[in-house]
Design a protein that fits this description.
Outer membrane lipoprotein wza fold like, palmitate, five-stranded mixed β-sheet, 9 helices, 19 strands, SLBB_dom, transport, seven-stranded mixed β-sheet, rod-shaped
Amino acid sequence: MKPLFALAFSSVLVLQGCVFSPGQHLDPDQFKKGAETEDGTVRLMQITPEMLKGELPSDQGTSSKQELLGFKPEAYRIGANDLLYITVWDHPELTAPSGPQQQLDANGRLVRPDGTLFYPYIGNIDAAGKTIEQLRADIAKRLANYIDSPQVDVSLLRFGSQRIVLSGAFTTAGQVEVTTAPMTVVQAIGQAGVDTDTADLSGLMLKRDGREYLLNLDDMNRPDSWLHQVYLKDGDQLHLPYNDQKKIYVLGEVVNPQAMTFKATSLNLMDAIGTAGGIRQETADGEAVYVIRGAENIATEKATVFQLNAASPAAFALAKHFPLQPQDVVFVGPAGITRWNRFISQLLPSASVIGTGAAFNR
């Protein structure tokens, strides 16, 4: 029965070899600049010094920087729901009509929703849109008809007309009132606090007047950072996204395959492989290091597969300069002998069954 067993074993070997090729792999020879797969849905590219120069995005933030730095805060303008404290020196009946023993707010003057406030002798005053100095001069001028040389001072007890909204991965998200003291992006963030464990520091978004400006909070502590010069104004929205969707998947012949999140500007290919414990030297194909990058709309755009020939350690100099994007898949393919060994390990159970059957027939 031995010839019968040998024939059966060979048949199974051929049959299983035709059905599948164990282990995922691509042919590194396919990766030529501009090449595509047969169906035209995937673009194949080698990671080379020339590719890094031509493919990596350049700085597109120059115009945004100029626009944001071009805004300079003006003097605070009074608005609805602001509470004012108006002092007329030597006239306590006007300064504190409820009596000096009352709380300061009790003697405040609230700006109505229509932007006006009432003041004794002179009646309704249009306050909204005026600076503190303009309102002070207006009140003094109108009081001069009733008081000789009135000395008037105006201050704000409570701000309620202008605000900035902070949302996302802030420790205390919510509204921040705009005050007479100009506030920068950095000051607003410092006041709200950042949840550094869950925040995507590179994704800070400033929404202003219907436009969106992407800011990099990760750059804040760098010498050339300009965020501390960006002033906020009424209606601005700051959104700091969470990093739960900012994942890179490292699979294949690495020590610790995993999905890893990152919260800084970018994660380069070298960092990703290093975080996964490095390439398995005994099973990996050094030429088969791939980055699979999907398209936003697969129906109209091509996905891209980048290939790094890491057979030489010098290739990691390129990996260090290749930035990954969220949802990228880093795949390290198995060596040819590894695929063969796995094929044999999957084949042995079938061979064992055939051997048992042959022994039974004897």
